[in-house]
Amino acid sequence: MDEGMMKTYARADEVFVDGRGAVLVDRDGKQFLDWLAGIAVSALGHAHPALTVALRDQVGKVVHLSNLFRHPYTEQVATRLCAHTGMAAAFFTNSGTEAMECALKLARKAMHVRGTPERTSFVALEGGFHGRSMGALSLTWGEKYRAPFQPLQQTTWVAPEDTAALTKALAAKPAALVLEPIQGEGGIRELSPEFLRAARELCTETGTILVHDEIQSGCGRTGRFLAAQHAGVTPDVVTLAKPIAAGLPMGVCMASAALADTFQKGEHGSTFAGGPLVCRAAMVFLDVLDDGLLEQVTARGDQLRRGLEALAERFPIVREVRGRGLMLGLRLHHSAQEVQKALYQEGLIVNCTAGDVLRIVPPFVLTAPQIEQGLECLAGVLARFPQEVAANG
Ligand SMILES: Cc1ncc(COP(=O)(O)O)c(C=O)c1O
Q1: Exposed/middle/buried for residue 8 (C-beta within 10 Å: 0-12, 13-18, 19+)
Q2: pLDDT digits (tens, 9 = 90+) for 9-53
Q3: For ligand 1, atom 3: residue with the closest CA
Q4: Where are the domains of the chain?
Q5: What is the pTM (predicted TM-score) of this model?
Q6: 131 CA distance to ligand 1 middle (Å)
Q7: Which of 36, 216, 259, 366 could form an SS bridge with 362, CB 3.0 to 4.6 Å?
């Protein structure tokens, strides 16, 4: 197993060979209900017909060009993303981490443009996750991620919802504040609208660039294109990735009108990013999204939340239901990993974050019967765990 590979992943034994919608099939023909979507990625599920047709067509034409040449889709995707986010310009990347890297460089460059190059530091939130490159890792919370790779960039940490600490940190004039409106790896932890608005105001007052990392919460996962739109907050920079090209690797760093011209030619770049194949996939994703997918996310998200809340009432092992839309978490009075493994045996794929949270980030095309099926499976598995532990936990 994993021969010839670096030992960075604890992989499950199953080998998946097929899929359709929210269902995955392993090589023994066993079907799994996919409530993880490749970690909040495969928004259109597996083998979406429109995606299959578009990608087949594009593979038969041009797959790669580099950013030295134009193709019909880059500007179209960028313009549509600007309309959805209220931003003015996009820089395409190949991953969420690279989108964060772009955001950090953009903030530093903006400080140069403004004549305050001494503003080089960053402020980030405890529990945040932004990627693992040296820049993005500097803003990712958790010793286990960071310790072996020091020294990293200078970051001041603030606890979510601690407005007084945020005020103090921003008074020190950093280059940027970086936050996830809903922390994904941090346990599906939603920041309050009040905190998001306070962060916006404080950034404006102190001239700090506000970066929203919506790599996990964005692109419609919460029923709005951006999770921060529920709170009516617009950042200066927003990063997107995961579902945006329906499973193909694409990230994007979007900047507001004031920051759109911050980079000059040659100051940032990528060989692969924004190529014809991924942009074609992003066009399909945006077409399906604009054809009522957000309403579907809201409806299915409400159904799933109601079902999870009913489980929370029934099983004392469940501590709390968290999140919005189809970005939900079930916080337990127990190791979520053990429960996750048991669910997996029963054919339901979820994963575990922050130790005690089952993360549920299914494809947006999950159907109502698939929700009932998954809830039934969850009920059966939760019933097997000792509920009295929960009462003390
Ligand atoms: C909020 C957030 N930011 C950044 C990243 C990094 O994205 P990627 O793994 O595509 O580099 C992730 C990945 O899980 C994420 O959830």
Answers
A1: exposed
A2: 988 888 999 999 999 999 999 999 999 999 999 999 999 999 999
A3: 130
A4: 16-47+292-392, 51-288
A5: 0.97
A6: 5
A7: 366
Report the top-level CATH class of 51-288. Answer: alpha beta
Same fold, 16-47+292-392 and 51-288: no
**Ligand 1 geometric centre to CA of 99 (Å):** 9
Q: Please give all residues whose beta carbon lies within 6 A of any atom in ligand 1, as ranges.
A: 39, 95-97, 100, 129-131, 180, 184-185, 213, 215-216, 241
User: 12: which 2 tokens?
Assistant: 């499950």
Task: Tell the residue nearest (CA) to atom 8 of ligand 1.
Answer: 96
Q: What is the pLDDT of residues 333-370, one digit of tens each?
A: 999 999 999 999 999 999 999 999 999 999 999 999 99
Find out if CATH 3.90.1150.10 is the number for domain 16-47+292-392: yes
| Per-residue 3-state assignment (H helix, E strand, C coil) for the chain | CCCCCCCCCCCCCCCEEEEEECEEEECCCCEEEECCHHHHCCCCCECCHHHHHHHHHHHCCCCCCCCCCCCCCHHHHHHHHHHHHCCCEEEEECCHHHHHHHHHHHHHHHHHHCCCCCCCCEEEECCCCCCCCHHHHCCCCCHHHHHHHCCCCCEEEECCCCHHHHHHHHHCCCCEEEECCEECCCCCEECCHHHHHHHHHHHHHHCCEEEEECCCCCCCCCCCCCHHHHHCCCCCEEEECHHHHECECCEEEEECHHHCCCCCCCCCCCCCCCCHHHHHHHHHHHHHHHHHHHHHHHHHHHHHHHHHHHHHHHCCCEEEEEEECCEEEEEECCCHHHHHHHHHHCCEECEEECCCEEEECCCCCCCHHHHHHHHHHHHHHHCCCCHHHHHHC
Which residue's structure tokens are 């998954």? 374
Q: How many angstroms does the Cα of residue 158 sit away from the middle of ligand 1?
A: 20
- Ligand 1 center to 135 CA (angstroms): 13
Among protein residues, the one whose CA lies closest to atom 9 of ligand 1: 96
Which residue has its alpha carbon closest to ligand 1 atom 16?
216
Closest approach atom of ligand 1 to CA 131: 6
Within 10 A of 87 (CB to CB), how many other CB atoms are there? 25
Distance 36 CA to ligand 1 centre (A): 14
